[in-house]
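Hi R.,

Here are the chain sequences for the assembly we discussed:
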Amino acid sequence: MSRPIECQRFESGLPAWLAGRLSPREVAAMAAHATQCRWCRDLLEFASGDRDLLSAADGPDLAASILARTTGGSCRRAEDLLCEEVDGTLAGEEGRLLSAHLEHCGDCTLLLEPLRLLHRALPRIAELPPDETFLSDVLARTSKRPAPERLPVLLAAWWRRSLRRPRFALEVAYSAALAVFLVAGTPSLPIRGGSGGASLRSPIESVAVLRTAPTSLVLQTVEAFEEFGKRGAAGARRKVERVVAGEAGRSIRVFVKRNTAWTRTVWVRLRTLFGSSKIDPTGTEPTRTSIRIPDEGTGAGGGRPPQGGFHEQHTQSDRRYDARSP
Amino acid sequence: MEQREILARCRDGDELAWEALIRLFQGRVYSVCCHYLGNREEARDVAQDVFVRLYQRLDACTNDDTFVPWLIQMTRNACIDRLRRIKSRPLAVPVPVDEMVDLRAPGPSPEEESRASLRRDLVHRALHMLSLVNREMIVLKEIQGLSLEEIARLLRVPIGTVKSRSNRARIELARHIRSLTGTAEAGGEPR
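And here is the predicted structure of the full complex:
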């Protein structure tokens, strides 16, 4: 702690004063300071031998005044040690320091007994018995474990909570704008590829596989279908849910998601690979179709795509494609 | 039966185990509620809610070793919620802290019970002279006996902060005890 400059001058000039080496003017200045500053006056008395440094009467005052001008008191630290002393976790050296402090500090000494009392009393109130009806009341309220909350209930609760949030409307507007931007700005999305306003709400169409083709061709068709799914655009690939290749004489199932534009794309691919295929618009909304694979040899033409034997119905988009085909 | 076994049976839907679990922890939960809220009726109400919530979310506590801190945390959160609600809706009938004096705890003999009753009276009065932060530290560490680490996790503060807050709270509580008993009687409290 820094001391006033006058005190520092006093301390540095004190040995010279006591040795009689100061001029009368300097002595008068130091004496005047000593009359005003208790610290320097004490220092002068100790230095000149007028006061016993270890006298019982002056010791505590001196210690207190020194602490007041240096660390500012040690009771805070002693209080921490008091808690450890009561807990029985105080180490030896710190215990001695605390004891020395308690010999001179009445406030801290008076805290020791209440702390010991609390140390004994507090753990005993960890449990307080409620009244007799408490248990029966709880049991009545928990007679049956409720079923886990269902998703709609959770969503409704989330929505109610969200409505109470301060910036919810702003967040919704931001999210909606972002969604519109993403949808409108992504060319691979089916919603942008469809003609005549084709959208995700288009009726579901099922892809029929060659009815009279030999098994090998059917399997190739299925493989090609899957391969298309792997190599195609991300949007199209996601549409392929499952394609199961079957054996001759059994059924295969082709699962197709709803989307006219995408289905037309698949159709084009199949047609490119094998020269013929078919879309079977049933008018209902099937999400899957089962196609029976004929036995090998009963189909037309040894691996060549047959010219007939397909479903005869066409969707609007198929007709357009057929019109462009040679 | 061990706590772990009781918990496992409760998760399986054993009603008797659930009753045993309530009996095992109702005192602690009610005690925490009392010390947070300082009102028996509110404490009883919140303690019931805590057990109902515990019943619904028993599966959420996957580690049986941390069940007690988890339960105390749930109780503490419920009490804080109730305190907030009380702040916005003042009690119809304010209940003085004196009523906490009537709280009973098991005592081995009438004489011991009498001394313990005096001590509890004194401690409860002093406890409710503390700020909520300091009272919370006393409740969690000194009364419920949670470790520094558990309290730090529960309150999401560093361990050093928990330790210093706890010491400060104890000193403040000791000062209130001293002021309640009078400086001259500080050493003569019933033990």
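Helices of chain B lie at 3-11, 15-37, 40-56, 67-88, 110-127, 132-143, 148-155, 159-181. Chain B touches chain A through 50 residues (CB under 8 Å).

Let me know if anything looks off.

Best,
T.
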